[in-house]
Amino acid sequence: MNQNKKTIIAIDGYSSSGKSTLAQKISKELKFNYIDTGAMYRSVALLAIQKNVFNSDLWNSTNFIPILKEINFQFKWNKILNKTDFFLNKKNVLHEIRSKRVTNKVSLIARIPKIRDILTTIIKKFIRNVSNKGIVIDGRDIGNIVYPQSELKIFMTGSIEIRSYRRFQEIQKRGGLNSYSYEEIKKNILYRDRMDTSRKISPLKKSLDSIEIDNTFLSPEKQLTLVLKVIENIKNNRKKIKKII
Ligand code: DC
After folding, report:
1. SS3 176
2. Mind listing the pLDDT tens digit of every residue in the chain (245 residues)?
3. How far is it, in rounded angstroms, from Cα 143 to Cα 205?
4. Which of 117, 138, 229, 244 is the one with CA 20 to 30 A from 183?
């Protein structure tokens, strides 16, 4: 990797395939910024719910789009909890955006072209203004659409059973009234996979130049070791090419 240039790592993949776990581990290890673009789509779904956009005849994106012109997202490192907090219009919504009502609606938001345009512009601005050595971004269309020039592109997959089970465990750990059953989670993940891969605009698709990680049987630690090795290889190859030139 270029030593002076900022490094962009794109992580795309299926719902609950461990993208954000891996992205956060990489960002901690390399001291890179971390952007969770799913949180941005979820925030728009949350705002839409709060504004009753999904109710009856108000389900009309033209009524809603002007609200997005003022939207503000912030990702801030939380030293105490050792993870990245997420703020929507200055309010920490990290947990609220993972609620059942948001999860059930977010795919409808993600298929609206104007919303994708607005969020893509915001994500690109984050990339341009990154203050650290680099940035790790996770989502569905980062390697293909948002930032095809990313130096490293990772595509994450995992069996539907393991993805549902891990998500089920995560929700159980968090507790609360909002809990799903395992079957409900599996159904929702399958629904979101179908929506993500079949939508007309920016569908989830593995790019030819990405590295696929199937983490059905791979722990987060092993995934991190693997990615760090790939990054080391890219760096060494760059040095070799520089010498030859
Ligand atoms: O990664 P996640 O499950 O938090 O993402 C929530 C939803 O947002 C997901 O169903 C697909 C959508 N999404 C998208 O369409 N494009 C992105 N870059 C990120 C998320």
Report:
1. coil
2. 555 578 999 999 999 999 999 999 999 999 999 999 999 999 999 999 998 888 766 566 777 888 888 899 999 988 888 888 999 999 999 999 999 899 999 999 999 999 999 999 999 999 998 877 899 999 999 999 999 999 999 999 999 999 999 999 988 887 754 678 899 999 999 999 999 999 999 999 999 999 999 999 999 999 999 999 999 888 787 777 767 76
3. 9
4. 138
Every domain of the chain and the residues it spans: 7-234
User: What is the 105 CA–ligand 1 centroid distance (Å)?
Assistant: 11
Q: Indicate if ligand 1 lies below 6 Å from the C-beta of 140.
A: yes
**What residues contact 213, with CB distance under 8 A and at least 6 apart?**
22, 154, 155, 156, 157, 223, 226, 227
Strands across the sheet containing 83-88: 73-78, 83-88, 91-92
- The pTM for the full model equals 0.93
Closest C-alpha to ligand 1, atom 18: 139
In order of 22, 124, 134, 189, the CA distances from 129 in angstroms are 23, 9, 10, 33
Does the C-beta of 110 come closer than 6 Å to ligand 1?
yes
Beta bridge partners of 12: 139, 155
159 CB-near residues (< 8 Å, 6+ apart): 216
